[in-house]
Amino acid sequence: MSQKEKPRILVVDDQPINVKLLQRKLERHDLQVLVATNGRECLETVRQQSPDLILLDVMMPVKDGYQVAEEIRGLNRHVPILFLTAKSQREDTLQGFKVGADDYMTKPFSMDELEARIEAILRRSAALPDTEDEVGEMSIGLYTYDYNRQELRNGDEVQRLTTKENELLFLLAKAKNALLEREYALNAIWGDANYFNGRSMDVYIAKL
User: What are the residue ranges of helices labelled H in 50-194?
Assistant: First the structure.
């Protein structure tokens, strides 16, 4: 996405009234809104339009949102996915993150909160490579780091990275021999430099 282009938000919901409501409100915030009413349309739009963010319902006919998210990840590992769903049980939320969601909101939700989360996700994405960019491999000590594959390799040993591990390591590697500001990393990856996100980042740094 170039700086002059409006961010492309793909809204996926089988209820036309929900789609129209979101489209109208998001377009008021200078966002370009793409729409899909089922999983098949969603996947085709991802292939053809390369959205910058996907707002995805869970309960849809033919394929539910979890299945669609898994297939999206097969096409594009980096496009952010935000679930918007009436499924509010803890196991539903965990399943959403398991299949690759970046965020999860339950209906009914506040438009102000949704807009704030969209802004945070887009701000984070702007600090990281575009989905179509091929980032060259980097050397980190004895390891070869592959951002696109989300892998650290040392000979035959391969360590898979989660999305947040991958994004944090990318920022650290890009700032090699320089200072990576804590607040910048938090805003880039978590969308907010608050205390709780800071503690979360400390855990990821310790794991890395």
Answer: 65-75, 90-98, 111-126, 163-174, 182-189
Say if residues 159 and 196 touch (Cβ distance below 8 Å). no
Which class for 58: exposed (0-12), middle (13-18), buried (19 or more C-beta within 10 A)? buried
Give 119-164 pLDDT, tens digit per residue.
Answer: 878 877 766 666 555 677 899 989 999 988 889 999 999 998 888 8
SS3 106: strand
pLDDT tens digits, 64-95: 899 999 999 888 877 889 998 888 788 888 88
Q: Side chain identity at 92, as an amino acid letter?
A: D
Pairwise CA distance, residues 45 & 52, whole Å: 12
- Beta carbons of 70 and 26 less than 8 angstroms apart: no
User: Which stretches does DSSP call E strand in the chain?
Assistant: 8-12, 32-36, 53-56, 81-85, 103-106, 138-140, 143-146, 151-154, 157-160
Q: Per-residue pLDDT tens for 34-68?
A: 999 999 999 999 999 989 999 999 988 878 899 99
Selection from 85, 112, 109 nearest residue 99 by Cα: 85
Question: What one-letter code names the amino acid at 182?
Answer: R
Q: Which residues contact 187 (CB under 8 A, 6 or more apart)?
A: 123, 124, 127, 193
